[in-house]
Amino acid sequence: QSVLTQAPSVSGAPGQRVTISCTGSTSNIGAGYDVHWYQQLPGAAPKLLIYGNNNRPSGVPDRFSGSRSGTSASLAITGLQAEDEADYYCQSYDNDLSGSVFGGGTILTVL
Amino acid sequence: EVQLVESGGGLVQPGGSLRLSCAVSGFTFNNFAMTWVRQAPGKGLEWVAVISGSGSSIYYADSVKGRFTISRDTSKNTVYLQMSSLRVEDTAIYYCARGPTWYVWEYIQHWGQGTRVTVSS
Question: Closest approach of chain A CAs to the CA of B34, in angstroms?
Fold first, then answer.
């Protein structure tokens, strides 16, 4: 069981908007620790998508956005494209575990 | 260009040991924290260990504490993960990764391609 909870899968049609949630607790997201998001394409290493809750590294399209509220965070993808089909992971710090934690991952399927 | 190249993976028996290496280039090595993250077959990402830019701060996941040791050699621009008392559940792809600064609790900015470790009899 991951400390950060993500839905196992989400899907959407091309052009649609989808959101991926990441639910934590008062020892991680709720304690104010930043949330980061990674995209992992099939057979590839993960890639940084969003850092510090809502910041995009250079090269990441503005179709991707992040937010954090209370003990949860969300990744939104607008204008869904076929190449967005991947696994998405959230990450934060947990002070009960004194370490970094990842969500279990969400598989995004573009219909 | 930042490059992280892992090596040292392979097949090892339960109870055995293995040392993973991650050779880095394209940046000033001791200015950045380095992390190991693993991914079991068909599973999600699991944070394993992190070492600060200076090497003075080191932290481990509970699942590997006491069995794995992370270290770095500035003269070789290499970070290591010494793994001992290996278990079947340690089977995974091990990724070497770099943070944005020397601080250990940042996001992962760059990832290596990973090295596969299989623990099996």
Answer: 13
CA–CA distance, B31 with B13 (Å, rounded to integer): 36
The band of A1, judged by pLDDT with boundaries at 50, 70 and 90, is: confident
Q: Which residue in chain A is spatially nearest to B98 when comparing CA positions?
A: A48
- Confidence at B90, pLDDT banded by 50, 70, 90: very high
- Looking at residue A65, the DSSP 8-state letter turns out to be E
Query: What pairs with residue A94 in β-bridges?
Result: A99
Interface test with A, best of B39, B45, B101 (most A CBs within 10 A): B45
Q: Does A36 touch chain B (CB under 8 A)?
A: yes
Segment B34-73, tens digit of pLDDT: 999 999 999 999 999 999 999 999 999 999 999 999 999 9
Of A35, A102, A45, nearest to A65 by C-alpha is: A35
Which letter does DSSP use for residue A7 in this model? Answer: -
